[in-house]
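Many introductory courses stop at the sequence. We go one step further.
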Amino acid sequence: MNYKREPAALPFGEFVAMMALMQSLVALSIDAMLPALTEIGQDLGAKEVNDSQLIVTILFLGLALGQGIYGPLSDTIGRKPAIYLGFSLFLAGCLCSLFSTDLTVMLSGRFLQGLGLAAPRCVIVAIVRDQYEGPAMARVMSFVMTIFIFVPAIAPALGQGILFVTHWRAIFAALLCCGVLTLIWFSLRLPETLTDDHRIPFTFGRIKRGIFEVCSHRVSLGYTISLGLISSAFLGYLSSAQLIFQKQYQLGTLFPLYFAILALCIGSASFVNGRLVMRFGMQNLSRWSKRISTAISLLFFLYVLSKAGHPPLWALMLYMMMILFCFGIMYGNLNAMAMEPLGHIAGIGAAVTGAISTFISVPCGILIGHSYNGTVIPVISGFAISGVLIVGVMHWVESTTHS
């Protein structure tokens, strides 16, 4: 029988709220920037309009590098010191971006923010695991993700609201204040959850063995690559969204509303997947989502070409809603399937799969974003190409598991 190992130090509601807020800082730091990208690029002397997209994508590079370190580090020094280290880098990055005088300084700050945010992104799961297991842990993570889902929907609106009142630098000031308040709450209210007898020495050999095991196991590697391909297409869309909606379709201050609608499609997919996965299974749901999204992307790509890259806004929104819903179904399931063979090295396995998928997505996402040419062709082609590649990779994985 699965049960909670020991009583949580915090009331359940407060613990869930704290974990959700820490997890949400990642989405807030990405999406709150979107309405301000063009203005930031102009103020900091970006040579090309597309250069401002690096303000989003460089943060993902920091996330990729950090995830491989904080997981095993927290197993050695404890969860709280690892979080403290990450938040220190995040706050330093906020200050660097807040007072940046050119794009290079801004990107350095954003990289530091991503490197710091990698700590709560991967250590939070370990904190929950320290105190809960089985269905209890699943319950906690479900509540955390339910709260987390709404952040991408409201973050651009928060950023746009700040721009109505003051300068874009106030967005970084708000992130800085949010980070400080979250860190104070965390430090005062949550005790260390990893006991001394459960700590493991930190060695690069452990990380090396974890990388080797993930890369040598076809199931883990295949689904990790698929995660990277999904994230590539999504990152390409994310970095281009502001230009597409505000410039190409001239939505202006309505951009956050349209972005929120699409973000909620991912959230609703997570909810639907939670209701259906026990009945239909992770592989079946992923397989059908993959097939549907790839077929739709290929057909819509041809339609976009016939419209010279300028489809009606309603058609683009309908397409994006369907695609992001399918991606929302696939993302959670692929993550679980990639981790399924790695139960004996869950902590470092999660760090390695997260780092590998992010290293795949960042350069591909940058390529898609920088290919933006005033039409939606680069973004739609990114979804179509990633879909075809995912079909191939998942066929490679499933041909082994069924043989």
